[in-house]
Every structure is written in C-alpha cells, then in structure tokens.
C-alpha cells in the first residue's frame, strides 16, 4: 500500500468490511458484523475490553482485550497491550509498551517492541513497523 491509507482499507482488503455510521466519541459501527463503539481522549486508568471498541485516543496505561473483546487501536498505547485467549486486537496505531498475545493479533501500525506471543495467532502486514524494522 502506498500513500495514506483510509482508516478501513486494511480491513476491507482482508475481506472484513468496516462500516462507520457516525464519527466521534460513542459512535457505533460494525466490524465483520460485530457492533463496535468509537472512543477517544486520554485514558485515566487501565482499559479492559469485553466488547467491540475502536480507540483513537491516548492510553498511558495498560489495555487488556478479554475473551470476546475486539479492539481496533488507531491511537496510541504507551502502556502494555495484552490480548487474552479469545480476544482480538487490530493495531493500526502505535504501541510503545509490551504486547502480549494469547488471542488473535493483526499488526498494521507500529510496535516499539517485539510481540511476546503466548500461544496466540499473529498476522503482520506489509508496511507495519515492529521494534524499529519496517515489514516487507
């Protein structure tokens, strides 16, 4: 992919449609048929994801994606990101903390560190950056 990528182009390319109905905090849309909400801003504490959420803000704290949770991170997480078994994270933004994966992880964005994969599934897409290395 070259140039700027529309927010949903990577998902559409992989057969998952993302239909946004409204922009802004609390807006809802669907990702692969799953209802999701959009949140932004700066988190004041850790975030546990049990349902579907697109987060475009800044998290200086940990984010944990629980079983059944789906996170589409288009913002910045400077804390750790943990994807539990049965959880799914789609990283389009930046994670500067440690990423621990026990679920399903898709990487389109930038990770400051290598992924600590603990039995999960990881898909790395061209153009993403992991530990300072751009992926072919």
Structural class: mainly beta
- Output the helix-strand order: HEEEEEEEEEEEEEEEEEEE
Overall mean pLDDT = 82
In terms of per-residue confidence, which ranges show pLDDT below 50 for 5 or more consecutive residues?
1-29
Number of helices: 1
If you compute it from the alpha carbons, what radius of gyration comes out, rounded to the nearest whole angstrom? 14 Å
Spatial ordering of strands, largest sheet:
1-2-3-5-8-11-14-17
Q: Please give the share of residues in helix.
A: under 10%
Number of domains: 1
How much strand?
A: 35-45%
Distance N to C terminus: 11 Å
Structure summary, number of beta strands: 19
Largest sheet: 8 strands, mixed
Report the principal-axis shape.
globular
Word description of this protein:
By secondary structure, the chain is mainly beta. It has one domain. The protein has 1 helix and 19 strands. The protein has an 8-stranded mixed beta sheet, with no helix packed on it. A 6-stranded mixed beta sheet has the order 6-9-12-15-18-19, with no helix packed on it. Strands 4-7-10-13-16 form a 5-stranded parallel beta sheet, with no helix packed on it. Strand 18 and strand 19 form a beta hairpin.
